[in-house]
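INFO worker-7 received task bundle
INFO bundle size: 2
INFO processing item 0
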Amino acid sequence: MTTTLESTVDADALTLTFVAEFDAAPDRVWQLWVDPRQLERWWGPPTWPATFVEHDPTPGGVSKYFMTGPDGTRSAGWWRFVSLTPPESLVFEDGFATEAGELDDSLPTTRTSVTLAGIDGGDTRTRMTTVTRFTSADELEKLLQMGMREGMTEAMGQIEAILAG
């Protein structure tokens, strides 16, 4: 059973934090981040599925993807990996992209830290903490108004089915 324990906005720290627990070991949850075919099954809300066209989960590696809305509209994004410590943590920069896959600097770039910690010995259950850091209150507010909190909640809601399948 997946449980989103917490979704917290801290305006002073400029962070948006999600904490969820999954019935799987950290190694298995780690695969959801590094395997692009698994990642695209949950990254993005169910009505905006993601397609990863490039995914290099190594320090300095880049991922490029787009999400497709119900009417065919595409929204592109990119990640640049800062660090990875399998299966415990990863840090990446996250931004929007143009249709050509290039950085769209008219929209905020954030830094996301993901931590996977085994619960009760770590063999069957994992707590995943995802902290997104913003550079200003305006950028935090802009992405919240764009639906980032709701979209990420919906995205994480798809993980349980992937782990069960």
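INFO item 0 finished
INFO processing item 1
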Amino acid sequence: MCLGVPGKVIEVAGNVATVDFWGVRRQVQLDVVDEPVAPGDYILNHVGFAIRRIPESEIAETLALYEQLITQAEQDDLMAEDVRNEIAGARGDRRAVD
């Protein structure tokens, strides 16, 4: 299963955004996102591409769900493991993803 990881857009330059993922800033491509993105928006990132802008009404719920997955799931929970790997990938820790 593949999941996206939510992050807050800090800056947009053309089709590239600088996005904050739990304190780690990475550049994300905006080529396939479904609507314009601006600083302050939240996006769902998958392997370096924003796949959609998270509507403002869903941001708090989405972040809370991911926090719960990260902190409360059992170590053998496959969804939590996938989220942890996506975050590790955003942080540039390739060993955790491979």
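INFO item 1 finished
INFO post-check item 1: Helices lie at 56-72, 78-91, 94-97.
INFO post-check item 1: The two ends are 15 Å apart (CA to CA).
INFO worker-7 idle
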